[in-house]
Amino acid sequence: MAMRSARRTGEDTRRRIILAAAARFAQLSYEEVKLRDIARDVEIDVAYVHRSFGSKEKLFTEVLSETARHPRRITGASGGEDLVAALTENVFKYGTMGFRIFANSLSSPQARDVIRTAVVDDFIGPLAAKLPAPATERAELIMACLAGIQLVREVLRLEPLHSTSRKVSQPMIEAIFRACVDEAPPIAPPATHPGASRPAKRTPRLAATSQAARQATARSRRRDSADSD
Questions:
Q1: Architecture of domain 68-183
Q2: Distance, CA of 10 to CA of 30 (rounded, Å)
Q3: Is the N-terminal amide bond of 160 cis, ω within 30° of 0?
Q4: What pLDDT tens digit does each residue of the chain (229 aa) get?
Q5: Of 166, 147, 150, nearest in space to 158 by CA
Q6: pTM surpassing 0.85?
Q7: 14-34: b (≥16 Cβ within 10 Å) or e
Q8: Of 84, 67, 73, 97, nearest to 180 (Cα)?
Q9: How far is CA 203 from the centre of its chain?
Q10: 118, 172 in Cβ contact below 8 A?
Q11: Short-list 124, 64, 121, CA closest to 97
Q12: Which of 29, 102, 108, 191 has the fewest CB atoms within 10 Å of its CB?
């Protein structure tokens, strides 16, 4: 009983560390976040943070995994319209902490490598498995759309998109995601209209004229050569 209680206390403390770290990474750059500040926020010794996670990079990885819970709702969708609905819901329903962590940490090469691995393994890969070819390109384009919409609406707060009601902007956002999710129809060859221009055919008379011109040119060159001799 005592061991179970101690384990639960340890798990609770570990989660408090992750949440405190997430709040720090959402406000500061990767380099500015210090383990001692996170420990102070949780009111524990910094040595406990080191024992629990080993390094700031490993703690950052845990933070990304925690903030990836909302994207997992996307990768858990069945595909098609269900996936479009999940992507659109992510834009309107969930907070921007994960995106702020993402944006604040991109200047750090160390953090960027961790983010790249997390994005590919936890989002792009699972999402691509639900998409038609070219699946990876579609998944990366969806990631770019999500990040761009969050940047404009919630970070830069550009108008009118920031203040536009969901009723107005949702159909447009759905159309963007639907274009990425739906398999594009095959491209039909251009229709040929009766009045459309066609490449001109060489008539026999035109061909004969061209041949005569070439023969005349050849005779002229032979005369010039004879005169020079």
A1: Orthogonal Bundle (1.10)
A2: 26
A3: yes
A4: 444 555 557 899 999 999 999 999 999 999 999 999 999 999 999 999 999 999 999 999 999 988 876 677 788 888 899 999 999 998 887 667 888 898 899 999 999 999 999 999 989 999 999 999 999 999 999 999 999 998 898 888 899 998 999 999 999 999 999 999 998 654 555 666 555 555 455 445 444 545 655 665 566 556 555 554 4
A5: 150
A6: no
A7: beebbbbbbbbbbeeebeebe
A8: 84
A9: 56
A10: no
A11: 64
A12: 191
- In CATH terms, the fold of domain 10-67 is Arc Repressor Mutant, subunit A (1.10.10)
- Please report, for the chain, the start and end positions of each structural domain, with discontinuous segments joined by +: 10-67, 68-183
> What would the two tokens of residue 218 be?
């050849």
Q: Which two tokens stand for residue 76?
A: 């858990």
The one-letter amino acid at 84: V
Q: Where are the alpha helices (DSSP H) in 77-203?
A: 80-93, 97-105, 109-119, 125-128, 135-150, 166-181
**CA–CA gap between residue 103 and residue 99 (Å, rounded):** 6
Tokens of 111: 């953090």
Contact between residue 101 and residue 26 where contact means Cβ atoms under 8 Å apart: yes
H or E, element range at 186: none
Give the span between the Cα atoms of 138 and 128, in whole angstroms. Answer: 7
Q: Give the integer Cα–Cα distance in Å for 122 and 73.
A: 11
Q: Supply 147's token pair.
A: 């990040």
